[in-house]
Amino acid sequence: MNPTSTDLPEVILFQPRVFGDSRGFFFESFNQRVFSAAVGRSPIFVQDNHSRSAHGVLRGIHYQIQQPQGKLVRVTVGEVFDVAVDLRRSSATFGHWTGAILTEENHHQLWIPEGFGHGFVVLSESADFLYKTTDYWAPEHERCIRWDDPDLAIDWPDVGPPLVSDKDARGSLFAQAEVFA
């Protein structure tokens, strides 16, 4: 796992070393020592999640205001554009976002620490999206910021009109959103 910085210093892209031949491929998808050295601490992952979404599905921008979750995300089938938004008011990068293309071919993973919002849009026909979290899902603490918020101005790839859930369509505007200290 080769860690690479993004536009937001705490959000880290991990690029594995992939060994492949005519039989297939192998790569180390997680190494606690490498991960801890890259993020500067040793978070404990308590939950793994797996979603499948069709082309044009946009999920996010999600976060939990209490029991915040750090997420290590990857794609095992298909391709997504993945986004992290800094929601920490005390941060120099508050309200800034970064994005990365995650695919089944590049095997990249993105670390999104606690205090960040997260979303993605599916670019392929479908995508299987897997992620580890540092805290359990707590629906009573879940929050959502609109994916198309003008203040965030996320440069989403054009997939036509995105398919969003009712919850995501009703997300808060960034200016009115409950954020972290």
CATH topology: Jelly Rolls
Order of helices and strands: EEEEHEEEEEEEEEH
CATH superfamily: Jelly Rolls
Supply the number of helical segments.
2
Radius of gyration: 16 Å
Biggest beta-sheet profile: 6 strands, antiparallel
- Uncertain runs: none
Portion of residues within helices: under 10%
Q: State the secondary-structure class.
A: mainly beta
CATH secondary-structure class = Mainly Beta
Strands, total number:
13
Q: How many structural domains in the coordinates?
A: 1
Strand content: 35-45%
CATH architecture: Sandwich
Output the strand order for the largest sheet: 1-2-10-7-12-5
Q: Would you mind describing this structure in some detail?
A:
There is one protein chain. The chain has helices at 32-39, 166-169; strands at 2-5, 12-15, 19-21, 24-26, 47-54, 58-64, 71-77, 79-86, 97-103, 109-112, 116-122, 126-133, 142-144. The strands form three sheets. It has a six-stranded antiparallel sheet, with helices on one face. Strands 9-8-11-6-13 form a five-stranded antiparallel sheet, with no helix packed on it. It has a two-stranded antiparallel sheet with strand order 3-4. The chain starts with a strand and ends in a 12-residue tail after the last helix. Helices cover 7% and strands 40% of the residues. The radius of gyration is 16 Å and the shape is globular. The protein has two helices and 13 strands, in the order E-E-E-E-H-E-E-E-E-E-E-E-E-E-H. With 181 residues, it is mainly beta.
